Amino acid sequence: MKGMGDEVMVGSSMTAGRRRKPPMIPLTGPIRNVWDMALIVTGAFVMALAFNLFLLPNHIASGGVAGISIIAAQVLGIEPAYTQWVLNIPLFIAGYLLLGRQSSIRSLLGTIVLPLFIYITRDIPAPTTNPLLGALYGGIGVGLGLGIVFRGRGSTGGLAILAQIIHKLTGFSMSVCVSLTDGTVILLAGILLKPEQALYALIGLFVTSKMIDAVELGFSNSKVAYIISEEIEPMRQAILNDMDRGLTKLNAEGGYTGDERTVFMVVVGQNEASRLKTIVRSVDPEAFVVISNAHEVLGKGFKLPG
Question: Nearest CA to 97 among 165, 44, 163, 43?
């Protein structure tokens, strides 16, 4: 039986013909810390490549200390890695003093290695000088790298620390604080470089945010379905036996009638959604069905946590 819920079949927990996978060992203690450090370093390297291949050559300052370093490189001719180190060090110290040791120490590694990787990869030739492509692929690369860093429970320092400080001192939401800091950098790019560059920077910032969400929430194509039917037992048996999926029975109450209802929650793969709808219609053509995307599914029959 694939899937997991309150209602399960007795017997094998996997589809016939598939061997049970050994359980994954959760990452804890020193192993987890080493894994987190590896993710932070990997994410920082991906960000450095995106910076040098797409953002810097096309002068796209899409927020953060990296954006400031691009402006400084164009206006003052300063090496971007130097600018990032100079700005990140006082920001890290301020974060350590105002936000506490635990919050700041995890950003130390990213703060150090990101400018280092930017410096090491600075001579790699850019694959494009088209600013739109630079904004799109640069945003994807930075978002992918940041998402990996966040998966490692770290950060790359920079204006994210400043946004946290503003959030703590003013009570503004983090989204507002991040928008203020990144928006200021993009505005400076529009003034000191060209207004067109600020527009490209906004595209890059948007793509970055979407890519971070994708990495953090997962790329799962699974679907979650909620089914309301009067044919409770036939529906349950059809899903368990014909779909070979687990399900969960939720007790609900009709908002208009006040009648008690049973809602089945079923998680299926994308390629199984059409089959589920066919089975539901065959059992109860009047059933009410809601199917939506599930960004990430953890558990037996899907991705194991750990």
Answer: 165
Question: Please, which residues bridge with residue 247 across strands?
Answer: 7
At 74-103, the pLDDT tens digits run: 999 999 999 999 998 888 888 788 777 765
Residue 227 has pLDDT above 50, yes or no: yes
Of 94-108, 189-203, 268-282, which range is least confident? 94-108
Contact in structure between 107 and 9 (CB atoms under 8 Å): no
Q: Which helix (H) or strand (E) holds 140?
A: helix 131-151
Gap between the Cα atoms of 59 and 67, Å rounded: 9
Single-letter residue type at 272: E
Cross-sheet strand order for the sheet of 248-253: 248-253, 260-268, 223-228, 288-293
Residue-level pLDDT at 16? 30
User: Which residues have CB under 8 Å from 222's CB, separation 6+?
Assistant: 267, 268, 269, 270, 293, 294, 297, 302
> What span, in angstroms and rounded, lies between the C-alpha atoms of 18 and 13?
10
Spatial separation of the C-alpha atoms in residues 236 and 95, rounded to whole Å: 54
Ramachandran angles phi, psi of 23, nearest 5°: -65, 140
User: How large is the average pLDDT for residues 62-76?
Assistant: 90
**Burial track 237-268 (b if 16+ CB lie within 10 A, e otherwise):** ebbbeebbbbbbeeeeeeeeeeeeebebebbb
pTM of the model: 0.70
Grouping H, G, I as helix, E, B as strand and the rest as coil, residue 128 is coil
Tell me which amino acid residue 91 is.
L
